[in-house]
Write a structure and sequence with these properties.
Helices cover 47% and strands 10% of the residues. The chain has 575 residues and is of the alpha/beta class. The strands form four sheets. It has a five-stranded parallel β-sheet with strand order 2-3-4-1-5, with helices on one face. The radius of gyration is 33 Å and the shape is extended.
Length: 575
């Protein structure tokens, strides 16, 4: 069917009207480039357009840039039998020897047409030596030669080739256009079909008309009198809408047992774990878009029945949680492809998605100060830390919670977290508290080098929550470095996280350096009595005042056990 209904002229190209118009005008006006490059995903009309362009160029009865389609030349090109139009598969003819043969034959004039046209499909598959051999001919081709290249991976084509071609980017065909075309084909084939079923085929084709026609051909070969969504479920192995929404609803309710039971049912019906995850990822993406953009968004191209069911389900999820779920599904899907233990990985993911409400982010817990006290942690009630590989979340489970889905961390600071006061000139206590929170944020977000550079000597001079204006004083010897774009962005981001809005930062140098002793490097913690005679109280106090140590002691219930000053060598060091 994909061959039978192949486009034969520019007007029959579906979804590529802009390119069709440009090529027709080029042919009709005679302003033809010597080399064309058609790029785009599979099945969007690249090779068909190359053949149509070849017919339009060589057709003796061409009118308005269109080939007549009836002359011997047009028929021979359509059948792939014209000796002046040579089609080459770049995947199987990718060596330098084949390109040398092409160069030699290019010098021979065409037998009966105006031009000798070379169509090279999947041109990105040529070897680098082959590209180099083609380069000179492409730069100065004989006047009777035209090249038409087609590729799905244009980034693999050398820039020296790209610069010598007239490039056309073919876009994915919208699902609505594919659906209308499939409806017309069904009428020509005397086949009955539900528009929702054809729309689903169009969505599965992912913008490729050839894939859509292949799927339609497969469905029609069943011999059913009518194409329905139920037929698609049975034939293509896709889960029903009810099964997928039931699975998502069980996840929203935190019912891990129900999630495992529903997913097991899909596997028993013949679906693979990869198919279930692919369908689940698509469903989560639909829910995320509905939560972010609203029920009337045009981004989602899904049947009305699906939209109504998903609109009802979307409020049970939070957008940020759905983002996390999609990342987990993608990570597990990649792991399944190379694993011999697919079922344990699949079941673990299902339980993890169902129990998402029992986890909170480290940042939320640190900012809210909701960790159990140190004494409670000693009684085997310490928080458990769960790290997901390649996951955007590192989570801490502080206590058993109900199975009801809870909202994930908000980007706004909790009510009891330190925040800038509305006064233009904050109090000393407010300034210290605010800067400690900023330092804690920097330590958590790859800003340890900046914290060490400031060494606790920065202070807030003034702040205004209304305008977001912050004036920060830093030691004079650090002013130039801290005022760099990189550090300015880091500090502004940290302040914005505390204020809940964008801020405008001004950094000034202190009039005179703060009188503090140079900091000593702190060695890794080693168990030793705090009262060790070799640890002076002054050194212990300095260690306790370090922002990172203070954060751990206040928020995590840590104890400073021992401090050992490292000997600082006068020789240059990499440390």
């Amino acid at each position: 069917m994909a061959r039978r209904y192949r486009s034969q002229n520019f007007d029959q190209l579906i979804g590529q009207e802009a390119i069709a118009t440009t090529l027709k005008n080029a042919v009709s006006t005679g302003r033809l480039a010597h080399a064309f490059l058609f790029t785009g995903t599979r099945g969007v009309g690249k090779t068909s357009s190359a053949r149509i362009l070849a017919k339009a160029i060589n057709c003796p009865n061409s009118g308005g840039g269109q080939p007549c389609g009836q002359c011997p030349t047009c028929k021979a090109i359509a059948a792939g039998e014209d000796i002046d139009v040579i089609e080459i598969d770049g995947a199987s003819n990718n060596g330098v020897d084949q390109i040398r043969d092409l160069r030699q034959s290019a010098g021979i004039t065409p037998s009966h047409s105006n031009f000798k046209i070379y169509i090279i499909d999947e041109v990105h598959m040529l070897s680098m030596a082959a590209f180099n051999a083609l380069l000179k001919t492409l730069e100065e081709p004989p006047p009777h030669v035209k090249f038409i290249f087609a590729t799905t991976d244009v980034h693999k084509v050398p820039a020296t080739i790209l610069s010598r071609c007239q490039r056309y980017d073919f876009k994915n065909i919208p699902a609505a256009r594919i659906t209308d075309h499939l409806m017309e084909i069904c009428r020509q084939e005397n086949a009955e079909a539900e528009k929702a079923a054809l729309h689903r085929i169009a969505i599965l084709a992912a913008g490729s008309m050839r894939d859509a026609l292949s799927l339609l051909d497969r469905v029609l070969s069943v011999g059913a009198g009518r194409i329905t969504e139920k037929l698609l479920d049975d034939l293509l192995g896709k889960p029903s809408l009810a099964n997928m929404t039931d699975l998502a609803a069980a996840m929203a309710a935190g019912d891990a047992a129900a999630v495992l039971k529903l997913s097991d049912r899909m596997l028993l019906e013949g679906m693979s774990a990869e198919q279930v995850l692919s369908e689940l990822t698509d469903l989560l993406r639909h829910l995320m878009i509905l939560r972010v953009c609203g029920a009337e968004t045009e981004i989602l191209d899904i049947p009305g029945e699906w939209r109504g069911a998903l609109v009802k389900l979307a409020p049970a999820f939070d957008a940020s949680l759905l983002v996390h779920h999609i990342a987990l599904c993608d990570q597990t899907l990649r792991s399944l492809r190379g694993s011999t233990m697919q079922r344990p990985l699949f079941d673990a993911l299902m339980v993890r998605l169902a129990m998402a409400g029992q986890f909170s982010s480290i940042r939320q817990i640190l900012e809210s100060g909701q960790l159990p006290p140190p004494d409670a942690q000693k009684k085997n009630d310490s928080p458990s830390i769960a790290v997901q590989p390649d996951s955007p979340h590192v989570t801490i489970s502080t206590r058993p919670q109900s199975r009801q889905l809870t909202s994930p961390p908000s980007s706004q600071p909790p009510p009891d977290s330190p925040a800038l006061t509305a006064a233009v000139t904050p109090s000393v206590e407010d300034s210290n508290s605010m800067w400690e929170s900023v330092e804690a944020y920097l330590l958590e977000n790859q800003g340890a080098s900046l914290v060490n550079l400031l060494n606790g000597q920065a202070r807030i001079i003034s702040s205004d929550v209304g305008t977001g204006a912050i004036k920060l004083e830093v030691p004079g010897h650090t002013h130039t470095m801290v005022s760099s774009d990189r550090y300015m962005r880091m500090i502004e981001t940290a302040f914005a996280a505390q204020m809940g809005k964008a801020c405008r930062l001004e950094i000034i140098a202190a009039a005179r350096p703060v009188a503090t002793a140079a900091p000593q490097a702190i060695a890794p913690v080693r168990p030793a009595p705090v009262s060790s005679p070799r640890v002076s109280p002054e050194l212990m106090k300095r260690a306790q005042d370090m922002p990172a140590v203070k954060l751990l002691m206040e928020k995590m219930g840590a104890k400073l056990v021992n401090v050992e000053p490292l000997e600082v060598s006068s020789e240059p060091s990499d440390h």
